[in-house]
Amino acid sequence: MITAGIDCGAKNTNTVILKDGQVIGKGSILTGFDQEKAVEESLEKALQAAGISRDDVNKIGGTGSGKNSIKMADTLVNDIKAMRSARQVQVRLSRPWAGRLRPRWRRWVPWP
Asked: Which tens digit of pLDDT belongs to each residue from 3-13?
């Protein structure tokens, strides 16, 4: 399955394309005043880097201060949930430390 994650912030808009959990494309641009345009351009850059078209993407998730500008998103996540998920991914990736953390930090909650 191919998914896209878009983070539309006040300064930058970043997009990542995943295929079966592996990054296949990334796009990043300055957001500027037109957040919807920034979302489109960032997604287009990521799709070009991945060598696929928008029709190939099965699901799109969005977050960030400009998440409401991500009109094509199937799922929108507020900043607090996004940071929590990022923290849990960070813990999973740092396995040597994970054993020393309290059990609640070792839980995995999948991103939407």
From this structure: 998 999 889 99
34-67 residues labelled b (16+ CB within 10 A) or e (exposed): ebeebbbbbbebbbebbebeeeebeebbbbbebb
Longest dimension (CA), the chain: 45
Query: CB–CB of 80/67 below 8 Å?
Result: no
Token pair of 92, please?
């999973």
Please name the helix (run of DSSP H) or strand (run of DSSP E) that holds residue 95, with its range, or none.
Answer: helix 95-98
Q: Which whole-number Å values give the CA distances from 106 to 12, 86, 89, in the listed order?
A: 30, 13, 9
What CATH topology corresponds to 2-77?
Answer: Nucleotidyltransferase; domain 5 (3.30.420)
Q: What is the pLDDT of residue 76?
A: 84
Per-domain residue ranges for the chain?
A: 2-77, 78-112
- Report the C-alpha gap between 101 and 45 in whole angstroms: 38
